[in-house]
Write a structure and sequence with these properties.
The protein is α+β, with helices and mostly antiparallel strands and 152 residues long. It is 31% helix and 34% strand. It has a seven-stranded antiparallel β-sheet with strand order 4-3-2-1-7-6-5, with helices on both faces.
Amino acid sequence: MSATAENPPATATATATATAAVTTTAAASTTTKPVEERVRARVITDDPLYRTIPVALRFAPAEPLAVRIVFPADLSPEGTDNEWVFPRALLEAGLQAPTGTGDVRIWPCGRVQAVVEFHSPEGVAVIQFDIAALRRFLRRTYAPVGAATRRA
């Protein structure tokens, strides 16, 4: 059985919850400019040495309930950028407590780290982020127009 069949896609399961929680404020409190934050993340494996990778966090005002995490092409077997789209509310909630039952699961790891687990038919990727970087990105997605264009 594939990971998708076992675990319904996050966009299908979490979007309804995210929509109910965020719809009333998304349009009024979201920037009208695209937001991109480049961060470093750590790939978690059985190897005691971890590997850091560049990751792009993206938000498009046309999709105010969604965020995107984009991994570079050199990490993909197809040689293309690997982009995951999921509810912004899922990312917000995952910084506070374990959340997600579908393709994307997020939980805090101590006080300064968060783990994002990506499930696909090809396998599972476990990536660790600094919570401060994720919070900064989320703040920018709600920032007034002028503030959203500044780099942190």
